[in-house]
Design goal:
This protein has about 400 residues and is mostly helical. The protein contains 13 helices and 6 strands. Helix 3 packs across helix 11 and helix 4 runs antiparallel to helix 8.
């Protein structure tokens, strides 16, 4: 048996007898492969426009007729496996960065839209318990439809999953309602400035309840967070204690939600999107009776008539929009957690708060004193430093 590789006038012949005498594999570097079967009467000719380098010739696998199969591998002179692998890896990294960028941009945009419509609704319909319930109900309905139509894969859950999810759902419910109560009393920008102090709550709870220790840089990063939030609160023109406490309770609740989530969800194969869907449904079950007890259908009906008479049918769109966008922005944030590290997510969350604060000040024309803006900037800078120190 023999085969030839031709380039212009150059021909290389290798006989099967020589191949059998040499070692089974002569290695170099290589990419594509040619499989040539033993044929005593024919020769295989391969013509190319560029020189070919043989990287390996292997004899293997005898068939029933005991005819050896010869594998010959070659690559073009101006290409190598290492360069091809590097090029593929570079393309993969670029695609991943683009994907993460899309997640972040979508997350921030949806969050801004939710906060705007949520504040519009609360300004004319000050029932935060009901609006919180509607947000969870809308998200639950959207996910049930997605599962029924197989747009999203139905998660496989059991009783152990629900037991682990329950404390997470309780903390999520408290944090969601407390944040909505806060925004019904104060400006959106002020709520988010106070909510930027969440890392301070995280360190305090982890240190004293979980006995975790942190590097000195983490503790130092809390100083600008606490100082900036304090300065912003003291100089807020429309300060309200209920709004301030709502934001603080929301911070504490979300810290416990994260702790319970880390402890209870280890080893679970549920995707980020389905995990949040289950969390949303369980939170709805928990919140509904409390919402009825705190406000009640009679108050909701009277307030609804007043809001519709004041705003018109457009008010219904506001309620639907704040409910839909609440679910979407949370869903995207949980989906992004599947793709990025906690540090990257923390930085993205900081940038999200900046976008919400700036956009809400512009849209609602919130009066801001220079000293108040300075406090907000210091707090947000501290949050960024915390994320870097935590790494």
């Amino acid at each position: 048996m023999s085969f030839s590789i031709k380039q212009s006038a150059l021909t290389m012949d290798v006989s099967s007898s020589i191949l059998h005498k040499r070692s089974p594999s002569i290695r170099s570097s290589f990419s594509p492969s040619l499989n040539l079967e033993n044929n005593t009467n024919k020769r295989a000719f391969i013509s190319v426009s560029k020189p070919l380098h043989i990287s390996s010739i292997e004899s293997c696998c005898f068939h029933k007729e005991k005819k050896p199969v010869i594998h010959c591998k070659a690559y073009e002179a101006d290409k190598s496996p290492s360069s091809s692998a590097a090029e593929a890896e570079g393309k993969s990294e670029t695609a991943q960065r683009v994907k993460i960028g899309i997640y972040f941009a979508t997350w921030w945009a949806l969050n801004v839209v939710f906060n705007i419509y949520n504040k519009k609704v609360l300004n004319v319909y000050p029932f935060p318990w009901l609006t919180s319930t509607l947000s969870l109900a809308c998200g639950s309905l959207m996910m049930l439809v997605s599962w029924a139509t197989r747009i999203a894969e139905t998660p496989k859950i059991d009783i152990e999953f629900l037991k682990a999810l329950f404390p997470v759902a309780v903390a999520h419910t408290i944090g969601h309602v407390a944040a909505t109560v806060s925004m019904s009393k104060v400006a959106v920008s002020f709520t988010h400035i106070i909510k930027s102090s969440e890392p301070a709550f995280s360190v305090i709870v982890s240190r004293f309840l979980l006995r975790e220790t942190f590097p000195p840089a983490v503790y130092l990063s809390l100083l600008p967070i606490i100082g900036g939030c304090g300065l912003a609160a003291l100089t807020e023109l429309n300060f309200n204690m209920t709004g301030f406490m709502g934001a603080m309770i929301s911070n504490l609740a979300f810290v416990f939600r994260n702790i319970f989530s880390k402890k209870g969800m280890k080893g679970n194969a549920v995707s980020g999107m389905n995990y949040y869907a289950c969390l949303c449904m369980l939170s709805l079950v928990i919140l509904t009776p409390f919402a009825i007890a705190m406000e009640g259908p009679h108050m909701w009906a009277v307030g609804w008539k007043e809001a519709v008479s004041l705003i018109g049918p457009q008010f219904i769109w506001w309620v639907a929009a704040q409910s839909i966008f609440y679910h979407l922005y949370n869903q995207v944030s949980y989906m992004s957690l599947d793709q990025i590290s906690p540090l990257t997510f923390s930085i993205g969350n900081t940038m999200k708060r900046i976008s919400v604060i700036v956009s809400s000040i512009i849209i609602f024309q919130t009066p801001v004193q220079p000293i108040n803006a300075l406090g907000a900037a210091i707090a947000i800078l501290g949050t960024f430093l915390y994320s870097q120190a935590k790494a």
